[in-house]
Amino acid sequence: MNHHSKWVLASCIGSTVILAAFAACTFSEPEVFTSDDPIAKNPGDVNNNPANPGNGNSDQGPENGDVGGSSKNPQGEPADPEKPTCPGDPYADCDGDGYSIAEGDCNDSDPDINPGAFDVPGNGIDDDCDGVVDNVDSCDASLAIDSDDPMNGARAIELCRTTTETAEGVSKTWGVISANYVKADGSPGMAPIGHGLLPEFGSEKAWAGSNMLVLSSGAARAPNHPGYSAPAGVDHKTSGNPPEGYPKESPFCPGVLTGNCNDPAALEVRMRVPTNARSFTFKLNFFTYEYPAYICSTYNDFFVTMMDPKPPSLPDGNISFDAIGNPISVNNGLLQVCTPGTHGGRVFSCPLGTDSLIGTGFEDHAATGWLYTEAPVEPGSIITMRFAIWDSGDHILDSTVLIDDFRWSSTPIVEYKTLPAPAR
To answer: In whole angstroms, what is the distance from residue 243 CA to residue 408 CA?
Structure first.
């Protein structure tokens, strides 16, 4: 060892290190992957398999406990925590939203922008990374009134996108996973006359798109539609169990017991929530033949919107109810379209009059008018919603509900509520 080498070694070991000697002890520059790396030349193959370019498989991402960086480097070796891969690594999920650039994320520094998001109307951003800014889904323009395809029922309320339970990468979008016409408790056997896809119901037009979903314990038709029967006495000849948590008695009607669940009609939709959605809303309008003669009776029909997983803050899965928790029925506090009067010991002020009953078959009876239900939701989760209506205690004196304009929102909310919809 020459004199110079001995001096460098002594300087590194000694307690006082001068700058010139420390330079001789420093480590080499971190390795940087360049365009000569195989992975850079073949970005479609995240596992660096030249025999299988573009296979889209990756063992990186949040599923393997890696949020904000790769768990392995492009050679398949464990990532060095001292060598950050974000930003700029196409295989890392830099914003922790579950998508990398290689998986279609067009802005990997914003967790609300990725293929699983919905396009927020009017914000001027391509939130869902499909190459179109503020695209609006529309898919219900040419649906048959009596279509038996439950996916068309979902389309009628503006749920246009579809996906699969096991989708990955760019294919893991929000959307409907499955849809089924069922009874109120989710079991099969609903009568087909209990559902319809209608552009109008009397004077009430579809709130969004060209059609709306109609469910009925009678005929889901207005008098001008083929297949119509008056709501005084359509019998589906079906019965079943009510949804979990029901029957539920109205606080407005002490001592009144609800009857059996008859003529149930429901659409059940399972779907993945957009990654940037914190809440959703939809419109509904409930018509009932029970007003004014059967207030607070065993024959009072119900409409509920059952959500699974069950909201932890609610007594059951129903998210459509009035200010004191009544599900939608002739007995709740939201009946506004009617002739004023005192019936069943209750006073009905009927502030919306009766014009919207004309041409529906429910003339001289009642409706809620258009309402909206609003609910919080977990971004990216999978939920099941069941819109259900049924006769209580009989197979006649029917009720019908119109459902339309399902929308996601990026606005976080806390409460579940159903209120009168604003004027169009």
So the answer is: 25
Residues paired with residue 78 on neighbouring β-strands, in sequence order: 72
3-state secondary structure of 85: coil
pTM (2 d.p.): 0.81
Q: Domain-by-domain residue ranges, the chain?
A: 150-420
The pLDDT tens digits along the chain (424 residues) read 444 443 333 333 344 433 333 333 343 443 433 334 433 334 333 333 433 433 444 333 333 334 344 444 444 544 444 445 787 789 999 999 999 999 999 999 999 999 999 999 999 999 999 999 998 888 999 999 999 999 999 999 999 999 999 999 999 999 999 999 999 999 999 999 999 999 999 999 999 999 999 999 999 999 999 999 999 989 999 999 999 999 888 888 888 888 999 999 999 999 999 999 999 999 999 999 999 999 999 999 999 999 999 999 999 999 999 999 999 999 999 999 999 999 988 999 999 999 999 999 999 999 999 999 999 999 999 999 999 999 999 999 999 999 999 999 999 999 999 999 998 8
**Beta partners for 208?**
none
Q: Which residues contact 200 (CB under 8 A, 6 or more apart)?
A: 206, 222
